[in-house]
Write a structure and sequence with these properties.
heterotrimer, A mainly alpha, B alpha+beta, C mainly alpha, B: alpha+beta, D-Maltodextrin-Binding Protein, domain 2, Dipeptide-binding Protein, domain 3, 2 domains, 4-stranded mixed beta sheet, 25 helices, 22 strands, globular, C: mainly alpha, two-stranded antiparallel sheet, about 70% helix, disordered C terminus
């Protein structure tokens, strides 16, 4: 078994160098059949050529982007999402109502979408268009920043947790602990003792979401930490953070990106739960709050559900597709 | 594994098969519902103080007395009742042949006078009943307070083992024979018999306690209980379904009309209830705002003409001022406190708010049917000539209900008061606009809507230069987060009577009294500094106490109370706002049901009439 | 091995006890007004509230209460009585009554998800990038993208109005059905809740099964198997499926055990009297004994589920060893 592995390694090493010199046109096999004379000839001396280093223009991130842009559906959705986000800033401007100061008028309650009220009106006769777009803006900002926050915290802690053996026990217990106490209890206590603004809830969500990421990262780190190259690196005196950042982290990028992408819609859904439990400030409308409110109306007035729900669906699909595409693109095995 | 797989396969086949099977045929029974979150919490009748439990359990027990559709007292287990010449000792004479039965209707024992004593002993025993339902007996019955304190001082085991000997010795209750019970009150109380409809004076079989033990009764299930009322609970699945079945040995069966069974379903929310109603699985349904609007706007809707109002509940809702508001950092909010101490400021709000939009949050079809101008719930009591108490108050105030406008609203008066208030208060250093903090639960979308409506009304009707309406939120506990730290400017709450006397209402609002719960808790009257305000509260308190002292003449008593209440409202010491009257679709004739504004007899499924079609609004109005 | 099992068992017990203790103390930080209903709060004076809490034993020092709780648990296996959910009833009975209902529905739904989701996932992988795969992916995305509330409502409206199925769970709607000469009892009112429960897991089993199958298909041993001349179907079923199912198998005991927990939304929606909504209900009613018992139940199930998953992995895949140098957990 071991022998086979060694052979593989050797051959691939030869392969790549050949590829780089000849842009992959000549095959090793064909060469084997040529007579020796043709195979070897004296090279002419070029001073400039002698100075040239065997270096290709390969850049990891360039390849990632290149691969990513090959997935048309994901790119389209991503563009759509960016447009959507940009539109949340434009929409209130082109609307004839002031989103922060909507008039209540019982006679206009539950209007279906029409030329005045583009998304119809809610139960108090307020313009739904303005509400939906400002809610979308809040939700996107909240979910993207929470996702980024939890990914950063989760990855750093996960790397340390997986790599430093002494800390494994501690973090495992911490994880068991936090994971098994119902989140509602934590959330209620945080809302009660600190407050319940969007900012505080965002921080609180980061504080619980990192657990899952950290555990995932830790399990992956296990696979890489005892490989020979890490052992060698350690022997050469490379510091902890450098090993984590340079030797291990690159292997995790695809998984982390996928987690990031999937957690964004997850957080919007969680928002609904939080607002259902009364832990979210109702004065800042978000998609979660609109969805929750529409609960009691949507069977009779579906437009109150359809608009926020389709935006949530759009965001979910975008990140599902883009996340998968990006995660594939991150895998160096798929690069040229 | 194969077995499991085959089981799963079989099950999935059944799933598809079951789709074809026909629905069950319906039986003749009343189909009622509750919202799942208001499921019963206890079967211990003496312990419960929650409508959720009482609405069901009141069908399982007969009391000494009951009510009629107009709220008047009717004999039940007691056929006669009277007071002695001192006015203190009330005697109830009981019918014979009343049986306790188990949940399947088998006769277990006779229901005798001593069972009422056992019930009251349970209520007053600190360790048996966890101090629930004690307030009224303690305020009314001689020795009740002492007995409660005595049991509290005993170790738990000892208190739980107590029988009636000590109770008879300490409390003013006697049972001369099996069919007579007497209660001695602390003072002359003509309204004492109304308490006999309440669950704190409900009977409890001593033999049952012997059989299942004290803890057994406290944690009883429907199968453990003994029943003496019109129904027994024969089926009960928590948060799902319960069935009440006619008691086959009900003593009064000849005189009342009962259903064979009553099926009460627990549904997740009003939308699910509506679904069930549309599927013919309920006999009435209370509608939500969006359902009402939809039915109203859709002329071809099956029930377009069937929107009818529900009967009012016993609660009268009011806004209470906070006279000692604090800021979040604990310092007094002098600006608000000075302003609210000024009568003109309060009057400006009192006359300056047309609450129609606010009432539309409760009843969007006919908001003005919810208008309320008195502190005491209408139709609670009446004088001997039939004049209703709240009408007497309205007459003194010179106000009347107008079905078309919110009659308290008076723009000119309000403008004048506003001008006066701004002048007077500016002199006292108050800065305008005065900030008014209104607290709502963060999770409550409906409350947020209401607050938005009010904010707009304040701004439109009183002007942005006068008052600034701020909506603030609490997370879980309004008491701990708002009331105790005194952060609110105004607090809206309702009071419903426990017994039929105005003192049960006005007694909540007087100054210098331990029982004046609202005045102290919400109003912080004891910490108010304004001299005029304190004088007004003193005057009001004197008026209430004077009225309460009249015990020999009920008419004079009510008149005196009406005077006190009119004084209270004239000075805008409180702002009556609304009655809770929803809109429903129904097959039930609500006017023949028991209907009383105190106690819980109204929920009995006795003498109900259910039509086989849904009433139209005209038909329903005709029933009245 | 035995030593490892014993060690792990005791570690788990300690963890569970710690969790219970922490939840216990956290609960005491919550507002005690949860104990009262809104009606009661409106009508009870602070003194009366105080008396009620005192009588319910909720005003003692939290550590005293904790001691009492542990003493009851270890000496009599008594977790106390419910104070609000079903007042006076022992907590074990409260949970016991709901346990079975959630578990029965959950297991049927899980079974349904397995027997539909896994084969569909396999088919998707087998015909990768075909029409079937496309439809499957669209279904997965749809289920994940549409809020659960909406899909449940659609199922409910369709099921009750078009197919005439009971819209509300009722234990009394049991029908007897004869299949292959054997009599089965089946409750028609469970059909809609089961469909709602299984929908999400069908989608996720499809997604993961496809994912693992596709990953596995690119591995060397599969190439070898193909080179050996095995038919695609044979390769799929004897080699790929077995290995692709492994990662799913690890979560299987966990999922089976957690069916007990029920689902808040589905159970609320169909009035199923199961365990799902109990935790939130108990927290919002300050029924501390019930909260503790449920947290203990969930924590034990979760920890046991992970443990059984590890064991199952070890049995199915001989390369994995639990008693290595601590790298396995």
């Amino acid at each position: 078994m071991k022998k086979v592995v060694n052979m593989n390694v050797d051959r691939s090493a030869v392969d790549t160098t050949e590829h780089k010199y000849h842009r992959g046109r000549v095959h090793v096999h064909s060469r084997a059949q040529m007579p020796e004379k043709q195979l070897f000839s004296f090279a002419e001396y070029h001073a400039a050529e002698a100075e040239r280093i065997g270096y290709s223009k390969y850049s990891y991130w360039n390849s990632v982007w290149k691969n990513f842009f090959k997935k048309k559906s994901a790119v389209c959705m991503m563009i759509l999402f960016v447009v959507l986000f940009a539109f949340t800033f434009i929409a209130p401007e082109i609307s004839q109502f002031d989103a922060n100061n909507l008039r209540i008028d019982n006679d206009l309650a539950f209007q279906s979408p029409n030329s005045t009220f583009w998304f119809g009106t809610d139960n108090l006769g307020r313009d739904y268009w303005s509400q939906v777009w400002s809610a979308t803006r809040t939700s996107i900002i909240l979910s993207v920043s929470v996702s980024l926050g939890q990914i950063i915290v989760g990855t750093i802690i996960g790397l340390v947790w997986g790599y430093v053996r002494k800390l494994d026990r501690f973090f495992t217990e911490l994880y068991n602990f936090m994971d098994n106490v119902p989140t509602i209890i934590y959330m209620t206590l945080i809302a009660l003792m600190i407050g319940q603004s969007v900012l505080i809830m965002g921080i609180a969500m980061v504080a619980f979401y990192w657990l899952g990421t950290a555990r995932n990262v830790r399990n992956l780190v296990f696979m890489y930490r005892d490989r020979e190259y890490n052992l060698a690196s350690r022997c050469l005196g490379t510091g902890l953070w450098r090993i984590l950042a340079r030797n291990i982290f690159p292997y995790l990028i695809s998984v982390i990106v996928l987690r990031l992408a999937l957690s964004i819609p997850g957080i919007i859904a969680y928002e609904t739960t939080l607002s259902y439990l009364g832990l979210l400030d109702v004065s800042t409308p978000s998609l979660g709050i609109l969805l929750r409110n529409s609960r009691s109306f949507f069977l009779n007035y579906p437009h109150l559900l359809i608009f926020p729900a389709s935006i949530v669906s759009l965001i979910t699909i975008t990140f599902y597709l883009a996340g998968n595409a990006f995660s594939d693109a991150c895998d160096p095995r798929n690069h040229v | 594994m194969k077995k499991v797989l085959s089981m799963i396969l079989a099950l999935s086949m059944m799933l598809s098969l079951a789709v074809i099977l026909p629905a069950q045929a319906e039986v003749t029974e009343l189909l009622d519902y509750i919202i799942t979150s208001s499921e019963m919490e206890t079967f211990c009748y003496q312990y419960s103080q929650k409508a959720n439990d009482l609405n069901v359990l009141t069908n399982c027990y007969d009391h000494l007395l009951t009510n009629d559709p107009n709220g008047g007292l009717q004999p039940a287990i007691a056929h006669t009742w009277y007071v002695d010449e001192t006015g203190l000792v009330w005697t109830f004479e009981l019918n014979e042949g009343i049986k306790w039965v188990d949940w399947q209707g088998n006769i277990k024992a006779d229901c005798v006078a001593e069972d009422f004593a056992t019930g009251l002993e349970w209520v007053l025993n600190f360790h048996k009943n966890d101090s629930a339902n004690t307030s009224m007996p303690i305020q009314m019955i001689e020795g009740a307070s002492e007995y409660y304190e005595y049991t509290k001082s005993l170790p738990e085991e000892e208190a739980k083992a107590l029988k009636l000997d000590k109770f008879y010795e300490m409390v003013g209750v006697t049972c001369p024979d099996n069919k007579t019970i007497t209660y001695k009150t602390l003072a002359v109380m003509n309204y004492f018999p109304t308490l006999a409809c309440y669950n704190c004076l409900a009977p409890l079989s001593a033999q049952l306690i012997e059989e299942i033990g004290v803890d057994g009764y406290f944690g009883a299930t429907h199968e453990d209980l003994w029943y003496n009322g019109p129904y027994t609970i024969t089926y009960y699945v928590h948060q799902n379904e319960k069935i009440l079945t006619k008691n086959p040995n009900y003593w009064n069966a000849a005189n009342v009309k009962l259903f064979d069974t009553v099926n009460i379903k627990a549904v997740e929310d009003a939308n699910r209830a509506y679904d069930l109603f549309m599927a013919g699985e309920l006999h009435y349904v209370e509608l939500t705002e969006s359902q009402i609007t939809m039915i109203q706007n859709d002329a071809s809707h099956e029930f377009h003409d069937c929107l009818v109002p529900m009967l009012p509940t016993k609660y009268s809702y009011n806004w209470h001022w906070n006279y000692a508001k604090l800021n979040a950092d604990g310092t007094p909010d002098t600006n608000w406190n000075t302003a609210v101490g000024n009568e003109a400021f309060r009057q400006a709000i009192y006359y300056g708010l047309d609450l129609t939009d606010y009432l539309a949050r409760i009843n969007v079809v006919n908001p003005l049917s919810c208008q309320n101008y008195t502190y005491t719930t209408a139709n609670l009591v009446a004088k001997s000539d039939g004049t209703e108490y709240s009408q007497m108050v309205l007459d003194l105030l010179g106000m009347e209900y107008d079905p078309n406008t919110f009659s308290r609203y008076n723009a000119e008066k309000a403008a004048a008061y506003k001008k006066q208030a701004m002048e007077e208060l500016a002199a006292e250093g108050v800065t305008f606009p005065v900030e008014l903090d209104w607290y709502i639960s963060a999770s409550n979308a409906a409350a947020k809507d209401t607050a938005d409506v009010l904010a707009q009304n304040f701004s439109d009707m009183l002007g942005d230069d006068f008052i600034k309406f701020n909506t603030k939120t609490y997370v879980t506990s309004y008491n701990q987060e708002v009331i105790v730290p005194q952060l609110h400017s105004v607090w809206s709450s309702g009071w419903g009577a426990d017994y039929a006397d105005p003192v049960n209402f006005l007694g909540q609002e007087i100054d210098f009294d331990d029982n004046a719960y609202y005045a102290v808790t919400y109003g912080n009257v004891d910490q108010a500094t304004d001299v005029d305000l304190k004088a007004q509260y003193k005057e009001f308190t004197d008026l209430v106490n004077a009225a309460h002292a009249i015990t020999d003449n009920t008419d004079a008593r009510y008149e005196a109370f009406a005077k006190a209440e009119a004084y209270f409202l004239e000075h805008a010491l409180c702002l009556p706002t609304y009655y809770n009257k929803g809109i429903q679709l129904t097959q039930v004739n609500d006017f023949v049901k028991i209907n009383s504004l105190y106690g819980n007899q109204s929920e009995r499924y006795v003498n109900w009439e259910v039509s086989d079609t849904v009433y139209t609004a005209d038909e329903y109005a005709g029933l009245k | 091995m035995a030593k490892y099992l014993i060690k792990r068992f005791f570690q788990s017990v300690v963890t569970i006890l710690l969790i219970v203790a922490v939840v216990f103390l956290l609960m005491r930080l919550m507002p005690k007004e949860y104990f009262f209903t809104e009606d009661e709060l409106m009508k009870l004076t602070p003194e009366m509230q105080h008396e009620r809490l005192l009588a319910a034993g909720l005003l003692d020092h939290p550590l005293v209460q904790l001691g009492r709780f542990f003493k009851g648990m270890f000496t009599k296996f008594d977790l106390g009585i419910s104070r609000r959910i079903q007042t006076g009833k022992p907590v074990l009975q409260v949970i016991g009554g709901k346990f079975g209902i959630s578990m029965r529905l959950g297991l049927i739904a899980l079974g349904l998800a397995l027997i539909t989701g896994v084969p569909l996932g396999i088919l998707q992988a087998r015909f990768k990038d075909g029409i079937l795969d496309g439809c499957g992916q669209a279904f997965t995305i749809f289920i994940n993208a549409v809020p659960a509330l909406v899909s449940y409502s659609l199922i409910l409206v369709f099921g009750s109005r078009v197919l005439g199925l009971p819209a509300m769970y009722s234990a009394r709607k049991v029908q007897k059905i004869m299949i292959f000469g054997q009599q089965f009892k089946f409750n028609t009112s469970t059909i809609l809740p089961i469909i709602c429960l299984s929908l999400g897991s069908i989608a996720s089993y499809m997604m993961w099964m496809r994912r693992y199958m596709v990953d596995e298909l690119n591995k060397d041993y599969i190439r070898l198997a193909k080179l050996k001349g095995l038919s695609t179907t044979r390769v799929m079923f004897t080699h790929v499926m077995k290995n692709a199912f492994l990662p799913l198998a690890q979560y299987l005991p966990y999922s089976v055990l957690l069916t007990v927990g029920g689902s808040i939304l589905v159970e609320r929606f169909f009035s199923v009297p199961g365990l799902g909504p109990l935790l939130t209900d108990a927290i919002s009613r300050y029924d501390t004994n019930v909260v503790q018992a449920i947290v203990m139940l969930y924590a034990s199930l979760g920890i046991a589920g992970l443990f059984l998953g590890d064991m199952l992995m070890m049995l199915l895949d001989p390369r994995i060893k639990l008693t290595g140098k601590g790298e396995t957990r």
